[in-house]
Amino acid sequence: MSVTKPVMLDETGQEMVEVLRGVKMAIASGKDSEITTWKEIRANVRNGLGEILYPVGTKFVIYKYANGATKSGTPVKYYLDAVGHNKHFLIRHGEKTADYSMTLQFHELLNDSMQFDAAEDQYGVSLDTSVVSWKTYYSDTSGTVVVDPTGNPSTNGYYEKNDTSTYPRSTYGSNNWRHSGIRKWLNADPDTAADAWWAKSTPFDKKPDYGTYLPFQALLADNTDGDAATLLDVIGPVTIRTILNTIKNPDNSDYYLDADASGQYAVASRLAYDVTEDTFFLPTTKEVHCSTYNEDGGVLLQYYDKFSDYASPIGAWGSADTNLLKHKQNASSATDWWLRSAGTGYARDAVSVGSDGTVNSGGAYTAYGVAPICVIY
What we know:
Elements: H1 10-29, E1 33-34, H2 38-46, H3 50-53, E2 59-64, E3 76-85, E4 91-92, E5 95-96, E6 102-106, E7 111-115, E8 123-125, E9 159-161, H4 169-172, H5 181-187, E10 223-224, H6 231-234, E11 238-243, E12 273-278, H7 302-306, E13 337-342, E14 349-353, E15 359-363, E16 367-370, E17 373-376
Parallel strand pairs: 1-2
Antiparallel strand pairs: 2-3, 2-10, 3-6, 4-5, 6-17, 7-16, 8-9, 11-12, 13-14, 14-15
């Protein structure tokens, strides 16, 4: 009887080599790892070794050179923490598209002066200019029907009214994550020009004060890690849920302002949260060990659970958690930074972490810091 010996395919052998190299790197470097290759990291994660090799709290270092091809000049270092394992996935047809994942978050604030969203227009032009009938024109405060609320209906669109609560979006911005300026900046194509990545996504949208910046991913496009792959090559979009506010449209008290499947227009049956696919995103209250607004469907990240000052999740406007403190690079003091959860009682309040480590909320137009999250799978 003859026995056929198993044959190791080239692809399988390469995967095993990458895994073994990752194990060697982890043992040699200890807890904090300067990346040898992101491909090795991804191979280890995909083989279920992420939690073993890169336990929560592992800090990775990447470099950004003025010229990524020649690696010339003094590089800028960016630090990322492993904040969770097997918490975020891309979902297709109700199923995860991977078995394992590792969630990373920038350790420091990449910018400490960014609006969640800009103050919006009081009246907006319909995005679909083919619509022959949009909404009744309303006056600014009284609800009296007028023909021309803005004084200049010169476009071929129709006008829709923004909320006119005590704290309107036309003054304080919108807390809707899907349409926020910060989400657009984080997820714009890195090859997009500085003044071209932003686009109106609701009738009321206005460009944020960082609308002329290069998109966030352009900052990372030339980072080096020892081989051809950059961080951008080994991460991908994931499916996330974000709470929607509970405000009803002031034009019709029976309709919620942000409650249809896209989180855009007022409908009668409210959805508690919106679902988006994002490559970079901000955490929710639940993900950072806060008990407020937990219907958003976020997942508690092991980093914020393990290193929290408290055994149980903190509430908003309450206890300060030093594990939530974040600084801009080389800064001596902590500063406020954005989460993505909506302050549900307002159309304009987005949730943030204060410079003292408390969770609170405020107008989306306020300029705070950002510490984005991404996922390897």
